[in-house]
Amino acid sequence: MADDIKPRIRVANTAKKGELVEVKTLVTHPMESGQRKDDSGKLVPRLIVNSLAVTYNGKPVMNLKIEPAISANPYLSFFVKVEESGTLKLTWTDDEKNSWTAESKIEVT
Asked: Is the pTM above the cut of 0.70?
């Protein structure tokens, strides 16, 4: 399954100093809650993306804890205030400690 996980990020490439920039992100992941049963009646083990860490130029912006109630292929949108040019980095982590990263550069004018 790890080969099927694809984090995506959409954010403006340029911004003005002090501007709030909208970040849209989606990760393809089945998000098994641990409550569903398979065809033989056994519970499918829980396996969800349980956290999202966001940094800008290596400085923490947001650490998000994700619970099983979120849907498969979680999509999130949030805003980041940019004061200088840099790299926005998003790291998704699942219950098995696998992680996937997406990055985007923002040029501040």
From this structure: yes
